Amino acid sequence: MFAEKLWVPWVWWLMAGLFAGTLFLAVAFYLGTAAGLVAFGAIAVVVVPVFAAYGSAELLTLPDVFQAGRARLEWRHVGAVRALTAEETRLRRGRDADARAWLLVRPWLSRAVEITVDDADDPAPYWLVGTRRPRALAEALSAYAAGPSSHGVEDGSRPSLG
Q1: Is residue 37 predicted with pLDDT exceeding 70?
Q2: What H or E segment, with its residue span, contains residue 4?
Q3: The pLDDT value given to residue 147
Q4: Is 92 helix (H, G, I), strand (E, B) or coil?
Q5: Distance CA 106, CA 32 (A)
Q6: How far apart are CA 70 and CA 134, in angstroms?
Q7: Residue from 135, 109, 127, 143 nearest 67 by CA
Q8: 10, 118, 127, 140: which one has the fewest Cβ atoms less than 10 Å from its Cβ?
Q9: Based on C-alpha coordinates, what's the Rg of the chain?
């Protein structure tokens, strides 16, 4: 089983907090504390939901599908799976990318897994999925795609994101 949540890194939260604090000080200095608090609150109202939503994507190996965010790929359509290095990921996101590919990438994830899609009806030739653990994800995907006996999940339970 494989489960990963693509959380926004803590350093991004820290930078957002420092920005909001700096904005508070600047506005409070010129317009007063109340205006500074309004500016701080406005930043918080925007940043918190955006970071929470952007970092809520999950990667899950479920009994019938691989789920990446809201997208699902049935095991029978999973072809070759390859864990990419940071450099390979950079190239597959840019110069060597296929515009038809389906991507779930985040700027804080430097590595990914490339999954060839074996489905003539699917316009995407491959999925590029960012992860903090590319080797573990590639191994899990390969095991699940090989068949149910190779991964030992039969009860339909959802893996833990711990």
Answers
A1: yes
A2: strand 3-5
A3: 73
A4: helix
A5: 38
A6: 19
A7: 127
A8: 10
A9: 20
What is d(CA 87, CA 157) in angstroms, rounded to the nearest whole number? Answer: 35
Cα→Cα distances 109→26, 85, 104, 132, 133, Å: 33, 11, 10, 6, 10
Q: Domain residues of the chain, as ranges? A: 3-54, 63-150
Mean pLDDT of the chain: 90
Q: Is the pTM of this model over 0.85?
A: no
- Rounded Cα distance between 155 and 63, Å, is 8
At 7 the three-state DSSP class reads coil
Residue 26 pLDDT more than 60?
yes
In 28-152, DSSP assigns E strands to 58-61, 65-68, 71-74, 78-84, 102-104, 112-117, 126-130
The percent of residues in the chain predicted with pLDDT above 70, rounded, is 91
- Amino acid letter for position 86: A
